[in-house]
Write a structure and sequence with these properties.
The chain has 406 residues and is mainly alpha-helical. The chain folds into two domains: 291 residues, Fido-like domain (Fic-like fold, Orthogonal Bundle); 74 residues, Winged helix-like DNA-binding domain superfamily/Winged helix DNA-binding domain (Arc Repressor Mutant, subunit A, Orthogonal Bundle). It is built from 16 helices and five strands. The strands form two sheets. It has a three-stranded antiparallel beta sheet. The protein has a two-stranded antiparallel ribbon with strand order 1-2. It starts with 13 loop residues before the first strand and ends with a helix. The C terminus is likely disordered.
């Protein structure tokens, strides 16, 4: 059979035969009892540290175009937003990527709940999960200069530290990919047994350290290898996509922009998961293509979101009748990146006293930029509803393109 035009050969996953034995010390369902002793196969991941990566010409052109578009997004953001406004815009894109990455795992949340969760206030479980993903993404970018197994463990601990007792450690048991209630003999893919994980991750870290592979292809292959190793008991998908961003930053693909590539992957979730399957079968072409296409879509989506928020910021500045440089004026960029605020966060971000922060909030409320979430005086939170509406509209548009219910 002739290879496909955009095929990138890699060594396929090998398999070992095993038998399913339930944990008899825990309650066992009838189905588990019936399946006891049933044969299944778990993966043995090939080593990729020395992988010969050969990119076909057509796919290389796509990768170069996607890389150039990411650079243009960097330039666009730097030109559109002054330095004091750029960091909040980066936060918006970071939050967008984290929410989209979580949505790929069927974890959805509105912008309002997510912003409140990031304040440490009471919020929904999904909001808290996505807030942890935001923190993991931020950690991944901060650790991008030196990507190692220790770095990856830190990313996972940041993501799952409040949900998993073994967060930040390689898994100590077998996992499998399938619907809730499934068992290894009934699913399509069982990752390597836990004893093989440390060596596989050391090999992956060695592959990531290479400097001879086009950055987007490098990150896509590393991401696919990571997802198929599935080194953690939970949170593998979100950690793996955070790792992808860390590799991009490490390889200099983007200097300042956080490209919400997961929002691009949401356009075709079935294609994304099928591409991870193709990688197991010996072809990295589909996952490289998906990442390149996702990046291209994400740049357009990121530019549109940034443009909408910039227009909103200009409108706020026109409505806020206070001198330039005042606490209220400087707070505008803060609430653009953090559309739910309290007095303490404004004090911290603006470097002002409590009375000055409160006066700034009052000015923003008078201009109808902030609104209180309740009449309670204790732990009071104010929300920028217009910014929330822009972000929710963006998320809804992604759902329409993918046929999802958000």
């Amino acid at each position: 059979m002739r290879p496909k035009p955009d095929s990138v050969p890699v060594e396929p996953v090998a398999w070992e035969d095993r038998r399913w034995e339930p944990n008899w010390s825990a309650p066992v369902s009838r189905r588990q009892r019936e399946q006891a002793g049933t044969a299944y196969r778990s993966a043995i991941m090939p080593k990729i540290a020395g992988l010969d990566v050969s990119i076909p010409t057509g796919l290389m052109v796509d990768l170069e175009e996607a890389t150039a578009e990411i650079a243009r997004l960097d330039t666009y953001l730097a030109a559109k937003f002054p330095e004091d406004e750029l960091a909040p815009m980066q936060t918006v894109l970071l939050r967008t990527e984290s929410a989209s990455s979580s949505q790929l795992e069927n974890i959805s949340v509105g912008a309002r709940q997510l912003a409140i969760a990031e304040l440490g206030q009471m919020a929904s479980r999904n909001a808290m999960l996505v807030a942890s993903n935001v923190a993991a993404m931020r950690s991944a970018l901060e650790l991008a200069k030196d990507i190692s197994t220790a770095t990856i463990l830190k990313m996972h601990h940041t993501l799952m530290g409040q949900q998993l007792p073994d967060a930040g450690n390689w898994r100590q048991g077998q996992v499998w990919i399938g619907p809730g209630g499934s068992i290894p003999p009934t699913v399509s893919y069982v990752p390597p047994r836990q004893e093989l994980v440390p060596a596989a991750m050391n090999d992956l870290a060695e592959f990531i350290s290479r400097q001879d592979i086009p950055a987007l292809a490098h990150a896509a292959i590393a991401h696919a290898q990571f997802e198929n190793i599935h080194p953690f008991s939970d949170g593998n998908g979100r950690t793996g996509r955070a790792l992808l961003h860390a590799i991009w930053r490490n390889k200099g693909v983007s200097r300042t922009a956080i490209v919400p590539v997961s929002s691009g992957l949401l356009v075709d979730t079935a294609g994304y998961f099928a591409a991870l399957g193709s990688y197991r079968e010996g072809d990295a072409g589909p996952i490289i293509t998906m990442v390149a296409q996702g990046a291209m879509a994400a740049v357009g989506q990121g530019r549109a979101l940034a443009g909408s928020l910039h227009e909103l910021l200009l409108d706020w500045e026109a409505r806020l009748r206070t001198r330039s440089g005042s606490a209220a004026s400087r707070a505008l960029s803060v609430i653009l990146g953090q559309p739910a605020v309290n007095i303490s966060i404004l004090q911290d971000r603006l470097g002002v006293s409590q009375p000055t922060a409160l006066a700034a909030v009052n000015a923003l409320v008078a201009a109808d930029i902030l609104r209180p979430t309740s009449d309670k005086q204790r732990n009071r939170v104010w929300v920028a509803e217009e910014a929330i509406a822009v972000m929710d509209s963006f998320a809804t548009s992604l759902g329409r393109r993918n046929g999802l219910s958000l």
